[in-house]
Amino acid sequence: MLHPSTHTSVATNNGAPTNSPIPSYLQADNLGPWGNYLQQVDRVVPYLGHLGRWADTLKRPKRILVVDVPIHLDNGTIAHFEGYRVQHNTSRGPGKGGVRFHQDVTLSEVMALSAWMSIKNAAVNVPYGGAKGGIRVDPKSLSMGELERMTRRYTSEIGIIIGPTKDIPAPDVNTNEQIMAWMMDTYSMNEGATATGVVTGKPIHLGGSLGRKDATGRGVFTVGVEAAKHIGLDIKGARIAVQGFGNVGGVAGRLFTEAGAKVVAVQDHGGTIYKAGGLNVPALLKHVAETGSAANFAGAEVLKNELFWEVDCDILIPAALESQITATNAGKIKAKMVIEGANGPTTPAADDILQERGVLVLPDVIANAGGVTVSYFEWVQDFSSFFWDEDEINARLVKIMKDAFAGVWAVAEEHKVSLRTATFIVACKRILHARELRGLYP
Ligand code: NAD
Fold it and tell me: CATH topology for 2-206?
């Protein structure tokens, strides 16, 4: 007998088909990021046509690995950390997605991030599925040696499912080139051969790509400029508020400033700063590099964190963590356009409020796809051991971002849907088309 909540059938002991119950951590009433993702998929199913019969594929990650990561601390004790690697979908190619080190990392979060990677990779049409990893740890509490031991042990533990043709990690929140170098080295040591293509976002001297560091911010900037043209917003003089001034937010802030915009507010883990006439972005980037935060930046006003969302601005760029724009603050946002540098910064309820209020949201799954696009270039260069110059990389990146955004814009107009739903329509069709062509094995 079929259970109404699922379409998946499995054989029972007596041979009659029945449904496998969906485990609680996969269900939509798990209100974490995975629950948000499931709601986003549900919104798109009506537009999938005959491919809709495969839609449950999108609601179940292909593979989830939870690992124990034990290390010796410098004080002689042993600490255990919980690590994850989730491969959401590999229909279109190997898994691809970053590794996050953060004290609040959960399985629900990593699952959602892996699923958004499937959507994003399909949206910009790079030949990857989606994956993501993470360790529940505050890396700032570790010494350099502890951080290296934890990274290496985690890499060894997930080594059974990653590889240049299987699943290729990359940097995310609190992980960087050095961590990618340790991951590449650990995997290579275990394999007995140097495998540069196992991770992207590596240092240039280890097969990294020129342009990778700035790529996500450059993609945010590129789609922002394209969207601004559609809504008649002049970038020159536009006021911008950025949450998160790290790899993504810092670069996006710099590129918008170079194009004549003003960054009027920045929020990071250290607090919120504001200057109506525009912050000195090069000086702020230097300050963040030296002190680790935008807090205490000379000449800026300090704002209470909750007031960040009400700042008078034209463009808001969330570039920190998930679920930051919620039903509570979406009504207060003054920006005409939100560009999602972060993954999953807007909840579905907030999305609806912004749409009703006429605020254009450029969704993460297209807006921050510049990083994975140049990661793809890095992987291609590693395979061919032939490296391109930065101008070529940036030109190819900008072309892919502009073309993908134009395609999504056209689908949004055709179906009169948000850009998020339009991106999901484009991406889910590509994923499920591949799924259908490959068929089910065995
Ligand atoms: P990062 O570690 O370089 O920077 C993170 C920033 O967020 C820092 O400025 C930090 O202070 C801030 N932050 C952390 N906690 C905060 C809080 N509670 N409130 C306000 N600010 C807070 O990370 P990143 O690489 O810039 O990634 C930022 C976001 O962009 C993440 O959602 C990530 O998944 C997404 N993203 C990154 C890339 C990439 O290539 N790095 C690609 C696509 C998406």
Answer: Rossmann fold (3.40.50)
